[in-house]
Design goal:
Shape: elongated
Strand content: under 5%
Number of helices: 7
Low-confidence stretches: 136-159
Radius of gyration: 49 Å
Number of strands: 0
Oligomer: single chain
Structural class: mainly alpha
Helix content: 25-40%
Mean pLDDT: 76
Length: 226
Amino acid sequence: MPPDVTELTTVLTLCYRNGIRLPTYMITPDVRRQLTDMIVPPRVEPEEPDALLRRAFTAHAIIKASVAAIGGSEARALRLLLDLDGKEKRSVTDRRADAAEPYDITGGSFLRRHQRTVTEALAAEIWRRLTAAQPTADPQAIPMPSPCPGHPASHHPRMPSPHPTSPPAHHPRNQPNRVTGEITIPAVASQPQASPPPVEHYRPRRIREDPEPGARGRNPDLRPVR
């Protein structure tokens, strides 16, 4: 599990006093050894003789990569505070004064205003890298629950569907002929028509003639009602 950012900030601040210019400094039995254990914790106890040295080199590389990822004046200040680029031993007061130059302030003002801010940025970047390196579970590797208790899911046969479906039959409508390329449209069956009525039940339609000129206005079919 990645370390807590607040605790990691405190340990990094304590490491400013002696610095971690070399990876071998991180196996010293003081707060620098604690920093190594926080970033790269031991896998087993007791560990092999060279396991601590390998963890120290790994933790030192993670710190340098995190400082480089921050960049800017903050990265320069962190390299000076941690003495990553030093060629000779210098006090933390002198290194802090050099880190304050880009801010145009004194070392004491840098300590009060900016040192915790840049240290928290470094701790957060280390935490981010350690979190991203954590292995995640593969969803495909998680076994699915078995539908039948007592039987693994991989040995459970798939039950056939109670209503098997057959593939739809190929309909020849609008399919081009493979030889001629013409499209054949099948004829639609017509509905049977009703036969005409028999002759004995057939009554011819009566054709009405025009009335005589003198009888215009009278209807010969009307009879007076008595």
